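Journal club prep — side note

Before the paper discussion, L.F. wants everyone to see what a predicted structure for a comparable chain looks like in token form. Sequence:
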Amino acid sequence: MKRFNDKSLENVSVNLTKTKNPVYFIDEKDIREIVKKSSPTKRLGDLDIPALEKRLNQLPAVDSANVFLNLNGKLNLDIKQRVPSFRLNNNGKDFYVDEKGNEFPLSDNYSYPCMLVMGDVKKSEYKKLAELIDKIDRDEFSRKYFIGIAKEKESYHLFTSEGNYKVEIGDLDNIEIKVKGFKTFVEKYLVEQSPEKYTKISVKFDNQIVTTLNPNFEENDSILEVGNKEMAKLPLTAAKKEHAEARTQKPSQKIASKPAARKGQTKEKSKITAAKPVTTEKKKKTASSTAKPAAKKKATVKIE
């Protein structure tokens, strides 16, 4: 490589690797300026390639940098930029977070369009949050409805583009099931109602959706009216059937038990009356039989 020591640094190839979504935090001009500052003499032999590569990798918006010389002595720089997964506002501080969970600052020259997240989000939650946002971006329904995320008291909420309601998802587990539950609610119920009717739709519980009505919505139905209409359409559950059957059977059981008890009592009385002489005889026999062992015991005691 010594034969390239006197070669000029003007022959530099900068390759900004394409990402799934285009980003423009840094450009080719910025990279060339850094290369020039790394070798004031502009000679290739005076350039510390490992140090230059390390410096490029330390740039906040750079995901990876690779610097090398080809066989013709041409300096090549392959730069891959970070792609924000979301923008986090945490206690007044704004910054980007990529899909790997890396934080990096906002740029004065470029703003990347991504999901805004607010609240006290822990670093350990970054990757799961990035996965959630990726699922939202890949699903047409979710991409249409969800425009922001907030963490309130350890529970996550999704802000929607329609109405004033928010969707409570709780933790970041089972996201697909929760989003599917909300989608079902929208397609079966919300599509026929005003989006202003609710303030919150919670899908954080298993196999159920809990809604909170908007008290300021004039056309809102009362909870009792809504409950009566919905419950009237539903069949009785097994528990309610058992309860209803138990209530209907209780009176008949009481009426049937009374005569049965009387018959049993009369039979028992007649048996007892008829058995009185026998009982006295048995008592006498028992008394006499018990007397004999008592005498034996006394005898035994006396012998001792």
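L.F.'s comment for the group: DSSP finds eight helices and twelve strands in the chain. Keep this in mind when we get to the figures.
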